[in-house]
Design a protein that fits this description.
This protein is α/β, with parallel strands linked by helices. The protein has ten helices and ten strands. The two termini are 29 Å apart.
């Protein structure tokens, strides 16, 4: 079944997005199914369900490192047929829209709760270092700033993309004092901070954290300096399907690291977008259900809901 140009464009937008965090892209993926429900040209429920599955499969494979994109779509692909059994095409379209809206709202509510829990970990005078764009971390820092006007943030460049600039822009516009540094300066500036907060794109079956490239280095530096390292993420990002050694770290264009032709052809340029941080370097994972310790994370993954 041929996917419409608009749906293809929306999926490509998610696949090529280098700015937004995993939760936002998951919500965008659910929004694609809403668009499909509105614009599909299929004439029967069976045809629509086939198209829904095809588009869902494309969405789930668009960002392999980002568990919430897979999780939110796989849950919708399970829930929509179950909820719409025996209904007509019009009702099926409405069920798709309703279930997608519910998934989006659940994610937004989770982020709001995490922001509250995360802000409670901060006190007046704190300087927080962050790395790799996370809408959840942004919301937590904004919530903390509303209570503690004297917090400050050190934001890294966060790899070859412009995600670090977005962090600095959003927090700076909110009135939070920001120091913006290159990733290579993390070791130099870590003594100026007293907490680290980052997001996550996946919590693997072995508890390890997949996040923007450079997170692992920051965790190592924070551990060496004795600074608490918190990961803020909704449980939608927990993925008991894959261990960390099975995770796709999304190798991207070498040209982002070095312009073509500037280096001899014998030089291999690598550009992974994500890395893996061991759970033992993480002080706690802040979820919508509260702060989970290392042991609690593993227990949660073992009984992760379908």
């Amino acid at each position: 079944m041929k996917t419409s140009p608009e749906i293809t464009s929306l999926i490509d937008g998610i696949r090529n997005d280098r700015v937004h965090g995993a939760s936002q892209l998951a919500r965008q993926a659910a929004q694609v199914l809403k668009t499909l429900a509105k614009q599909s040209q299929t004439e029967s429920t069976n045809q629509f369900l086939m198209e829904l599955r095809e588009v869902g499969d494309e969405l789930m494979s668009a960002r392999p490192a980002m568990a919430p994109v897979f999780n939110i779509i796989s849950r919708l692909l399970k829930a929509i047929p179950e909820k719409s059994a025996g209904t007509d095409l019009s009702s099926l379209r409405q069920v798709t829209t309703t279930k997608a809206d519910e998934a989006i709202n659940d994610s937004l509510q989770a982020v709001s709760r995490i922001a509250r829990y995360g802000s409670e970990l901060l006190t007046g005078g704190d300087t927080i270092m962050t790395h790799s764009y996370s809408s959840t971390v942004i919301e937590a820092l904004k919530a903390s700033h509303s209570k503690h006007r004297d917090i400050e943030v050190i934001a890294t460049r966060s790899g070859p993309g412009r995600t670090g600039e977005r962090i600095a822009h959003e927090l700076g516009c909110h009135g939070i004092p920001i120091t913006f540094i290159d990733d290579a300066a993390v070791g130099l500036y870590i003594p100026n901070g007293n907490k680290v907060m980052v997001g996550a794109d996946r919590i693997c079956a072995d508890g390890k954290v997949v996040n923007g490239i450079g997170t692992y280095q920051l965790a190592l530096v924070a551990a060496r300096a004795g600074i608490p390292f918190y990961v803020l993420c909704e449980t939608l990002k927990f993925d008991p399907r894959l261990r960390s050694d099975e995770a796709d770290l999304e190798e991207k264009e070498a040209s982002e690291v070095s312009e073509p032709g500037r280096l001899p052809p014998e030089v291999r340029v690598k550009n992974p977008y994500f890395d893996i941080t061991p759970l033992e370097l993480v002080t706690g994972i802040v979820t919508e259900n509260g702060v989970l310790t290392q042991g609690e994370v593993i227990k949660y993954l073992e009984k992760y809901p379908d």
